[in-house]
């Protein structure tokens, strides 16, 4: 059945799609999405692949002929809506003057047309010219990649003169290159992560047979997760890629817990069948409860307003269930089968089985007398020390946690996307070079809805508002709209009549008109803000957007007009704000869900409170460490509060389950905690270190957004392990002893103490002196 599900999962995985469009950042039902994607991108929005031609005179006829050949090849590509270049402008100007849409052969005439008609946007100086290949805003990421590949081929086929340097760049080219580089980087890092996990399992999990089996089981769970993604139509995004290292870390813990308990039962002399039954009986519920609590911690991510964070949460929830099922059914079954095969092989050669009822008394006795290894001794001494000095340890922990929570508010938030990628990435170097040449091309886009696109009052308001913004706002460098085009065609003034305006509309090229006007009821005004995102950051763009919005209220449009400000920068600002501002809420919501879930499962305030207190300490410590290390939050690390709860609460719940199991056998709280720390502690340490070393591979990434995610996760997993063995034991023993004393006191006060003793004089407590001693 497991192999059959693998085939089904492989089929489902074929349906997984990679998404990075607006729908991954903004809910489709939101007004922000409607304004940007439906109104702007589908109607007016274009992106431009830019070809930089440099290191030679722009007026060279051979250069213009090559540009003309590139124009022809590029404009015929599906998804390309137009090409702007010096060549296309000169041909249009020559057609207007001579009726011939061709490049003049006379060099003097050519230079005259370039001087009088070519805008600065296409020719910043005499040795640089830019070719803009405009792509429709509705083009998919796969289509962009194909268009980019075709343009790069066309540049070669256009045969530019050898003295010129040709660079293909622009925002679409940068995004395609970044996505490809990140996918390649993640594949290499995940491979390195698996290698490090193998090393850790060999070093730490050496007390069991088949020590690499947990890794194989978790990879099976990941295959099932891929299949579920495809069938449930959960897309792959930049954030969801980070789910797989998390799933490997959590899934390997489930497999290790089951395998460790089976080995423990076998060492006690049980048969393979008995070992499986006891493992499922004791470890199965504990791991299932840990999974539920982990899921509740992750569920807080579903409340995010950013769709790709919601998809990240869905992927985590599905993944931990798949890894649990793989560990419970496949992992346990395989170990049972291997044990039986080993027993049959030994019996065939005339040897006694080393497990089960055939195990000799001598070997059983030897296993019981086996000395604990160094890890057992360290865990035992650590647990014993923390239980003996609870107030000192908890006082220090609480103070550090409080300081960390305060310091966390001072941890900066990195929103400049260019810092997320390697600074020597060729696509980024080329994009920065383009920005140096043009001064930046970021825009704020204002969509104006009207009943009449040729109304003079509408165009006059657009013109007056544009002039006001350019003159009074330092970061607004220019404006483009139908008003600026109409003015340039009419001697610098807006016509007074609708008929004159419509006459000018008829003279405009269709491509130019479609860029700023849609039908009879929509116009576009673009405000050029240069490189504000690079110079002032997200905060600067947000402030500038608010200023323009206030200006629109002050210089309100004529009656019947509505103006909506949108654009990629506005969307990005809103998304980053939602990602970073919501992280604190998601963390505390996760804590509340974990507490509520534990309370509902156990109906015991103590069992619900202790794991939450332990993980709350980790949240505070993590923020303090980030502040001390000078780290920053990014869109990817903003989810780490919920991840700490998910990973850390699992360790605490597993420790707590084993603690109460030992108590049920008659151990005191101190003895039960020491025994739990040694017995299950080794499995928790193994899974924790495996997870930690797996994430260490991400730290080596060239992408800052991935390496910072890996670094903070390593820190948080380490802190969660530390809290499980240093904070959890004293808190649990202290509160459990306090509760036991209160129960004993209540029995005495209720007058039922004597009745309890009398019924047990010949039982548990023995004679009266023993009862008195109790």
TrEMBL record:
Transmembrane domains' residue ranges: 182-205, 212-232, 238-256, 286-309, 315-338, 391-407, 585-602, 609-630, 636-654, 683-703, 709-735
InterPro entries the UniProt entry points to: MMPL_dom, Mycobact_MmpL, SSD
Entries under PROSITE patterns matching the protein: SSD
Domain SSD: 220-337, 608-734
Keyword Membrane on entry: yes
Subcellular location: Cell membrane
The protein's name: SSD domain-containing protein
Taxonomic lineage: Archaea, Methanobacteriati, Methanobacteriota, Stenosarchaea group, Methanomicrobia
């Amino acid at each position: 059945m497991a192999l059959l599900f693998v085939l089904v999962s492989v089929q489902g995985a074929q349906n997984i799609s990679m998404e990075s469009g607006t729908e991954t950042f903004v809910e489709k039902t939101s007004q922000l999405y409607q304004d940007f994607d439906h109104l702007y991108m589908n109607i007016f929005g274009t992106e431009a692949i830019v070809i930089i031609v440099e290191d030679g005179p722009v007026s060279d006829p051979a250069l213009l002929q090559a540009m003309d050949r590139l124009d022809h090849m590029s404009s015929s590509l599906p998804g390309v809506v137009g090409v702007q270049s010096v060549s296309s402008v000169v041909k249009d100007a020559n057609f207007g003057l001579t009726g011939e849409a061709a490049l003049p052969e006379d060099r003097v005439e050519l230079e005259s047309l370039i001087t009088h008609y070519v805008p600065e946007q296409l020719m910043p100086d005499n040795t640089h010219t830019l070719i803009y290949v405009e792509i429709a805003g509705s083009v998919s990421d796969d289509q962009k990649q194909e268009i980019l590949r075709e343009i790069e081929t066309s540049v070669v086929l256009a045969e530019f003169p050898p003295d010129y340097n040709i660079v293909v760049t622009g925002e679409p080219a940068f995004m395609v290159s970044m996505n490809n580089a990140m996918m390649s980087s993640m594949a290499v890092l995940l491979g390195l992560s698996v290698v490090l996990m193998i090393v850790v399992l060999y070093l730490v999990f050496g007390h069991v047979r088949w020590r690499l089996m947990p890794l194989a089981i978790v990879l099976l769970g990941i295959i099932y997760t891929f299949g579920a993604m495809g069938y449930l139509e959960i897309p792959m995004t930049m954030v969801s890629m980070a789910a797989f290292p998390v799933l490997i870390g959590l899934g390997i813990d489930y497999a290790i817990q089951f395998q460790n308990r089976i080995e423990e039962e076998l060492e006690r002399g049980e048969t393979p069948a008995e070992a499986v039954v006891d493992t499922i009986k004791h470890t199965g519920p504990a791991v299932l409860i840990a999974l539920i609590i982990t899921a509740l911690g992750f569920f807080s991510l579903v409340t995010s307003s950013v769709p790709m964070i919601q998809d990240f949460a869905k992927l985590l929830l599905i993944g931990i269930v798949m890894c649990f099922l793989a560990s419970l059914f496949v992992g346990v079954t395989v170990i049972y089968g291997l044990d039986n095969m080993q027993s049959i092989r030994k019996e065939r050669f005339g040897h006694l089985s080393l497990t089960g009822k055939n195990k000799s008394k001598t070997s059983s006795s030897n296993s019981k007398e086996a000395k604990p290894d160094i890890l057992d001794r360290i865990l035992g001494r650590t647990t014993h020390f923390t239980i003996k000095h609870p107030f000192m340890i908890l006082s220090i922990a609480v103070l550090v946690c409080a300081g960390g929570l305060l310091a966390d508010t001072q941890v900066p938030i990195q929103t400049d996307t260019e810092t997320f990628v390697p600074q020597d990435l060729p696509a980024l170097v080329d994009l920065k070079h383009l920005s140096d040449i043009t001064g930046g091309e970021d825009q704020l886009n204002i969509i104006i809805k009207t009943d009449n696109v040729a109304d003079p009052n509408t165009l006059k308001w657009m013109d007056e508002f544009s002039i006001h913004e350019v003159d009074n706002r330092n970061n607004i460098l220019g404006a483009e709209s139908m008003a600026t085009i109409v003015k340039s065609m009419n001697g610098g003034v807006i016509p007074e009549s609708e008929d004159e305006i419509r006459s000018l509309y008829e003279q405009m090229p269709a491509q130019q008109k479609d860029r700023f006007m849609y039908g009879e009821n929509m116009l576009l005004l673009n405000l050029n803000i240069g490189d504000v995102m690079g110079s002032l950051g997200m905060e600067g763009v947000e402030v500038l957007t608010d200023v323009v919005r206030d200006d629109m209220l002050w210089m309100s449009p004529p009656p019947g007009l509505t103006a909506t400000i949108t654009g990629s920068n506005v969307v990005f600002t809103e998304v980053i704000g939602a990602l970073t501002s919501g992280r604190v809420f998601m963390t505390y919501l996760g804590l509340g869900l974990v507490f509520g879930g534990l309370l509902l499962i156990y109906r015991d305030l103590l069992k619900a409170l202790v794991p939450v207190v332990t993980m709350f300490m980790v949240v505070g410590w993590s923020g303090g460490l980030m502040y001390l290390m000078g780290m920053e939050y990014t869109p990817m690390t903003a989810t780490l509060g919920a991840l700490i709860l998910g990973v850390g609460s699992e360790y605490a719940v597993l420790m707590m389950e084993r603690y109460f199991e030992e108590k049920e056998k008659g151990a005191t709280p101190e003895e039960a905690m020491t025994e739990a720390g040694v017995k299950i502690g080794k499995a928790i340490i193994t899974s924790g270190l495996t997870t930690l070393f797996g994430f260490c591979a991400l730290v080596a990434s060239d992408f800052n957004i991935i390496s910072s995610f890996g670094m903070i996760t390593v820190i948080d997993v380490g802190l969660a392990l530390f809290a499980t063995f240093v904070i959890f034991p004293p808190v649990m023993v202290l509160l459990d002893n306090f509760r036991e004393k209160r129960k004993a006191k209540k029995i005495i006060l209720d007058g039922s103490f004597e009745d309890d003793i009398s019924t047990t004089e010949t039982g548990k407590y023995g004679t009266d002196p023993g009862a008195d001693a109790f």
